[in-house]
């Protein structure tokens, strides 16, 4: 998606050879017009797979998953990272290492929100090693729901996550693929 690539070049901050900060458009401040276009692009890519729910994980996946679900006119679920007092006891949960925080967190979805037969589209902001996406995939499997694909805003293709999921036969679409962050520069595929 050319618009996203252009915005990454304009505002992306290369923190290290492995981490890109997009705090002014996606990860802290949100650019609503950009995020709406991203949702429309995911909707265009996946509409034919007939998803009936979008699933993401809090927090940075939420805006993109929301605009995707809005465009497709289907509900959006975000997996929560910690059990809250108001959360149902009956949950599907997975332990997921966090790439940016360097800790392990539990992500969970109330079992009344995902059902066998649901056609689920997973959306997230970045893919690095693929742990977050794999955790969401396992939640879909535990619910007996059907995964139609995975949409990722920014795939760092020099890391293994995206291809490791494609190797399982799952469709993964990314809007921008970054080949390298070396030398403090963003190089796209
Ligand atoms: P993975 O689980 O694929 O290793 O990492 C994906 C998760 O880590 C995403 O949900 C995203 O929030 C975060 N992440 C991974 N790489 C980056 C990065 O370069 N920049 C930012 N801002 N987040 C990242």
What does this structure look like?
A six-stranded mixed sheet has the order 4-3-7-8-9-10, with helices on both faces. The protein has a two-stranded antiparallel ribbon with strand order 1-2. The chain has a two-stranded antiparallel sheet with strand order 5-6. It has helices at 2-11, 32-46, 62-72, 131-142, 161-166; strands at 13-14, 20-21, 53-57, 76-79, 91-97, 104-110, 119-127, 146-156, 172-180, 187-188. A hairpin with a 6-residue loop joins strand 9 and strand 10 (187-188). The model has no long low-confidence stretch (mean pLDDT 95). It has 189 residues and is α/β, with parallel strands linked by helices. Helix content is 29%, strand content 31%. The chain contains five helices and ten strands; from the N terminus they run H-E-E-H-E-H-E-E-E-E-H-E-H-E-E. It has one domain: Rossmann fold, CATH 3.40.50.2020. Bound molecules: guanosine-5'-monophosphate. Guanosine-5'-monophosphate is lined by residues 19-22, 27, 60, 99-100, 124-133, 161. InterPro entries: PRTase-like (IPR029057), PRTase_dom (IPR000836), Pur/Pyrimidine_PRTase (IPR050118), Xanthine_PRibTrfase (IPR010079). Pfam families: Pribosyltran (PF00156).
């Amino acid at each position: 998606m050319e618009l996203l690539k252009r915005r990454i070049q304009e505002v992306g901050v290369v923190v290290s050879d492995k981490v890109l900060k997009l705090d002014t458009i996606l990860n802290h401040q949100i650019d609503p017009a950009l995020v709406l276009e991203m949702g429309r692009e995911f909707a265009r890519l996946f509409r034919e797979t007939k998803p009936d729910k979008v699933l993401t994980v809090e927090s940075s996946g939420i805006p993109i998953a929301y605009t995707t679900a809005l465009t497709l006119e289907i509900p959006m679920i975000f997996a929560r990272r910690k059990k809250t007092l108001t959360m149902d006891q009956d949950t599907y949960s997975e332990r997921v290492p966090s790439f940016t925080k360097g800790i392990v967190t539990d992500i969970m979805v109330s079992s009344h929100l995902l059902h066998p037969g649901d056609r689920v589209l997973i959306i997230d902001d970045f893919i690095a090693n693929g742990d977050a996406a794999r955790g969401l995939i396992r939640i879909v499997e535990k619910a007996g729901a059907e995964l139609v694909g995975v949409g990722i805003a920014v795939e760092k293709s020099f890391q293994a996550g995206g291809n490791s999921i494609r190797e399982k036969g799952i469709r993964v679409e990314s809007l921008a693929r970054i080949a390298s962050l070396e030398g403090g520069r963003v190089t796209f595929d």
